[in-house]
Design a protein that fits this description.
mainly beta, Methylamine Dehydrogenase, Chain H, Immunoglobulin-like, 5-stranded mixed β-sheet
Amino acid sequence: MQTGSETERPLGRITTSGSVTNFPSSDNSVSSVTTGTDGDIWATNVGIPGDIERFTPTGTEADFRDPTSFNQPHSITPGPDGALWFAPGNGGDSIGRITASGSITIYTNPLILPEPNGSHGPTGITAGPDGAVWFVNADSIGRITTADSVVASPSQGTPDTAVTLTGSGFNSGEAVVVKFLTGLTTSPSDTLCSTTASGEGTFTCSGDIPTTAGTPAVHTIKATGKTSKVTAKTTFLLTG
């Protein structure tokens, strides 16, 4: 936190009756603030490169930092996948994602542009109704899809093999259905399992490869979110 003649920018809370409480940031200057799916308050810190802060409703603070980043985060928003997404700013060509447990991923792409004067990169960001995240991108609007994926373990076996499916990138709390594509004209797919995505948009469920799985070959396993319509695919090698 800055002291002396420099300006302190703490996180403030105001009740509906007008009572204000300040919770100073331990590092520097709070910029943007939002509520996470975990019920805590998440904020960006424009004074520290790669720094994201989390405050509980009572003001307890935790810091999460990407040590490889030179960018100072600006806006932050809860994503449709249950994570928090932020615009690093400061000339960056990237968008950041942080899970409720504090794991940070930075997505860099040359299509993500700094403002024309080069002073900073994307500074405004929000979740869209299409399951993607939208952000201010220089003189245009940018869109980044959430990281949807599904993994089967094991990834090969015979009919009746028990498999565990794990996935991410889905909407928080939505129903997810996982199907095995048989490649057959009749019964082209069989449901392996269905479950509800966690607050971070992840899921785990288990099922058995159907006895009517089709011919030995590489088959597709598909996970679909009921509300987001996000579809993640992986393969399964069906043996004899």
